[in-house]
Design goal:
Elements: H1 2-30, H2 38-47, H3 52-87, H4 99-115, H5 123-147, H6 151-174, H7 179-182, H8 184-189, H9 197-216, H10 218-225, H11 228-233, H12 238-260, H13 266-278, H14 283-307, H15 316-338
Helix pairs in contact: 1-14, 3-9, 3-12, 3-13, 3-14, 4-5, 4-6, 4-12, 5-6, 5-12, 9-12, 13-14, 13-15, 14-15
């Protein structure tokens, strides 16, 4: 009976997430200076019918941005889940541990270097730069982890590493001369604006491949959640497994940072919400729930960022912090009460 109730709960949870995703997708497509009915949106998307202005706005501006939000939001949430599994800490995430800030620093330096020479860089180069920055920050975090056994101190160290990377990035961007480089300030705060179909194709390829690997790791992750000794007894190569967790998490967070800049609290809040919704920590269920939850959460936050003070657009990281930070505080309070 308990298994049946759990299956029903999981089914209902996924249906809710899917319905929210579709609802927010349509709402985001319809939000902006030009309002369209659901019928007009469906005709433009599926039948390619509609006036030229509405057609171009939907296909060239809104759809690439919405799809980017879905892909990157899901990727960031799964990245947070992998880090929480690695550190066995519910408040571990790419933003908190300074991984996103490290990626932001290297990408900003690369863009400044090439833009100052009037050379454009491709999406692939940005992802590689962000990955390098993520790995550098993760290296520092792992060095601290070897010296410090208190997880609170590890998180604090990650926050400090993030502040250092952000300070260097802001310093470099502030004193840049080129007007295009100065505009990097908006990206450094986090934004989904300016997405193109080329960006969507690149991020979709990277995230899809990574997610397939993550999904096939569900069984080792499930064993690892029960302890390293248990995982070893189940035949899991702990050293290789931990390296793969770090690499996959870094690739996902690097892809997000390369295209949208650092986005706060999604990687912490959404995995916790997904686990609470499903009432289970099974990776086979939590991983797709995290992806859907991250997509829904970021679609909602991006909608607010675009529309609340339109035509002025808020940074996405500011909005995600407003809704994500209370979840983190709740997690910390509950964790303290259990001690």
């Amino acid at each position: 009976m308990n298994d049946r109730k759990r299956a029903v709960r999981c089914g209902i949870s996924f249906v809710i997430l899917a319905v929210l995703l579709i609802f927010l997708f349509i709402w985001n497509v319809n939000s902006g200076s030009i309002h369209l009915s659901v019928k007009e949106i469906l005709n433009i998307i599926f039948r390619h019918q509609g006036d030229e202005t509405s057609y171009n706005i939907v296909w060239e501006i809104r759809l690439p941005r919405i799809l980017a939000v879905i892909i990157l939001g899901g990727a960031l949430s799964v990245s947070g889940f992998l880090l929480q599994t690695f550190f066995n800490n519910p408040i571990a995430g790419p933003f908190v541990l300074g991984i996103s800030s490290g990626a932001k620093l290297i990408v900003a330096l690369l863009m400044i270097f090439f833009l100052s020479r009037s050379v454009s860089i491709g999406s692939g180069a940005m992802i590689l730069a962000a990955f390098a920055g993520s790995m550098i920050s993760m290296g520092f975090v792992l060095l601290v982890a070897k010296k410090v056994h208190n997880m609170s101190m590890l998180v604090i160290s990650g926050v400090m590493i993030g502040y250092i990377c952000s300070a260097i990035t802001d310093f470099v961007v502030t004193f840049a001369d080129d007007s295009n480089i100065v505009n990097l300030h908006n990206w450094s705060l986090g934004s989904f604006s300016g997405m193109t179909w080329g960006n969507v194709q690149t991020m979709a390829a990277v995230v899809l491949l990574t997610m397939v690997i993550v999904f096939f790791m569900s069984k080792p992750i499930s064993a690892y959640q029960l302890g390293e000794t248990y995982a070893q007894n189940m035949g899991v190569n702990i050293k290789a497994f931990r390296i793969l967790l770090i690499l996959l998490s870094s690739i996902l967070s690097a892809c997000v940072t390369a295209f949208a800049g650092p986005i706060s609290f999604v990687g912490i809040a959404v995995p916790h919400i997904a686990k609470s919704l499903l009432k289970t920590a099974k990776p086979l269920l939590v991983i797709p729930a995290c992806f859907l939850g991250g997509a829904v959460f970021c679609l909602f936050c991006d909608l607010i960022a675009r529309t609340v003070f339109a035509p002025t657009e808020l940074s996405i990281s500011s909005v995600t912090a407003v809704f994500g930070a209370p979840v983190v505080i709740y997690i910390m309070i509950r964790r303290q009460q259990r001690i």
